[in-house]
């Protein structure tokens, strides 16, 4: 053990050693909220009890200490689940299940053992499994291979993942960066010495779906026209299906920019402003403009083709009223659907890459790509105070001075103050994401953290 300790370097902690215990206290305080516990159990589909305080402190403190270890300048990253091995089926595995691998003998649960296992337990594919022995405390029983589909909730995509078991799951994504989940639900995180519970997913809001409704309305009308022209039986589509495709594409764009570590700015404008923005205007100058109208609409055309193809392959003359939508799409094994899905996310990656050039990527709300390198006019009035939304609909907010943010944020605030129908998505180099718009008479921003896992 001494040789192991000598071979490791420990990142100096700016946080102190009280934070793991504070995080445990925060979790137990949340557990006293009966409404929160009831909602969590309802969403996860079962009942759950926290481990006792001593066990939880041992687990989180050990994970915290492991997060501070480094070897060859690489941070320690891993996922860990507290669940007995026998509760996992022996004959299942990704992409539709969990693959259980039990060690021939249990391993001690300490930061050095976690450090050894972390490289083998690839953060994106595998969890370290532990159980609690009354006499010895937590012990490591083996590895649980989950596959990568769980990341589609963050990155966007149509592939569904097996639900995380109703167990306590800990994510370690960097020095002092810990998130604690129950199943798929984040309950608390520690990042930069701050304890919080980032559960705000703006994509679940009514206002965003309404704001970006132009694409859904247009593709729906075009789909209905195509349905009239076809001679084959088509299944009925969920009217919100096109909107779901658009949401997943935007999630993918954001995640690619976040992972690039250079940041970016996406500006969504009303469709009727397309020609105005491409000419001289008082709002922004678009350095690189795209000319061809049809190629600017590739996202719309792909969405329509997906809608038509899904309706066609599920058409049944004996069940003309059968409705299909997102679930049938994600479960489809049809080759044409797979190709269209790949194509639409290639477009998303292409758009994300454009953000590497200084300035905004400008898109209409019908997902028509106008250009990139957009510079928001410095002549627009500055914004001294903005509202920080505390819920998805922005019904609760707190005033915040804008002086503490960067150039991208201030530019987005100025634009949204002038163009009330604009939506700006600001991705910082530190991977934080703000969605900005004019709301309730004030420039308002939402922190978009769909997973609550810091550093990921």
Automatic annotation (TrEMBL):
DAC domain location: 270-450
Alphabetical list of InterPro entries matching this protein: DACNV (IPR048551), DNA_integrity_DisA_N_sf (IPR036888), DNA_integrity_scan_DisA_N (IPR003390)
Pfam families: DACNV
The protein's name in its UniProt record: DAC domain-containing protein
UniProt lineage: Bacteria, Pseudomonadati, Thermodesulfobacteriota, Desulfuromonadia, Geobacterales
């Amino acid at each position: 053990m001494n040789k192991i300790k000598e071979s490791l370097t420990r990142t100096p902690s700016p946080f102190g050693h009280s934070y793991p215990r504070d995080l445990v206290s925060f979790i137990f305080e949340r557990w006293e909220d009966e409404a929160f516990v009831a909602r969590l159990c309802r969403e996860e589909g079962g009942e759950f009890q926290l481990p006792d305080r001593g066990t939880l402190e041992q687990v989180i403190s050990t994970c915290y200490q492991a997060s501070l270890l480094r070897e060859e300048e690489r941070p320690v990253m891993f996922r860990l689940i507290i669940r007995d091995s026998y509760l996992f089926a022996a004959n299942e595995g990704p992409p539709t299940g969990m693959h259980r691998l039990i060690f021939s003998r249990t391993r001690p649960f300490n930061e050095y053992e976690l450090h050894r296992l972390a490289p083998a337990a690839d953060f994106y594919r595998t969890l370290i499994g532990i159980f609690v022995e009354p006499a010895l405390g937590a012990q490591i029983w083996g590895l649980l291979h989950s596959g990568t589909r769980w990341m589609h909730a963050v990155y966007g995509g149509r592939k569904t993942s097996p639900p995380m078991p109703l167990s306590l799951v800990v994510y370690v994504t960097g020095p002092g960066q810990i998130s604690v989940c129950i199943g798929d639900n984040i309950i608390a995180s520690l990042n930069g010495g701050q304890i919080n519970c980032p559960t705000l997913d703006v994509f679940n809001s009514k206002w965003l779906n309404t704001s970006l409704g132009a694409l859904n309305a247009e593709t729906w009308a075009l789909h209905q026209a195509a349905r009239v022209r076809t001679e084959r039986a088509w299944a009925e589509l969920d009217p919100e299906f096109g909107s779901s495709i658009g949401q997943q594409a935007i999630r993918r764009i954001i995640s690619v920019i976040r992972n690039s570590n250079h940041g970016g700015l996406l500006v969504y404008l009303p469709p009727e402003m397309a020609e105005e923005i491409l000419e001289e205007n008082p709002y922004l100058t678009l350095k690189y403009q795209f000319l061809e109208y049809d190629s600017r609409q590739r996202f719309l055309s792909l969405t329509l083709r997906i809608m038509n193809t899904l309706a066609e392959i599920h058409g049944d003359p004996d069940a003309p009223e059968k409705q299909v939508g997102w679930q049938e799409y994600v479960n489809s094994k049809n080759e044409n659907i797979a190709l269209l899905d790949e194509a639409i996310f290639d477009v998303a990656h292409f758009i994300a890459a454009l953000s590497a050039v200084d300035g905004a990527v400008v898109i209409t709300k019908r997902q028509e790509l106008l250009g990139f390198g957009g510079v928001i006019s410095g002549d627009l009035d500055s914004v001294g105070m903005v509202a920080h939304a505390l819920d998805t609909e922005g019904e609760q907010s707190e005033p915040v001075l804008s002086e503490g943010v960067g150039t991208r944020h201030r530019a987005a605030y100025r634009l949204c103050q002038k163009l009330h129908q604009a939506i700006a998505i600001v991705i910082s180099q530190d991977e934080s994401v703000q969605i900005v718009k004019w709301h309730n008479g004030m420039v308002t921003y939402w922190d978009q953290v769909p997973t609550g896992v810091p550093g990921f």
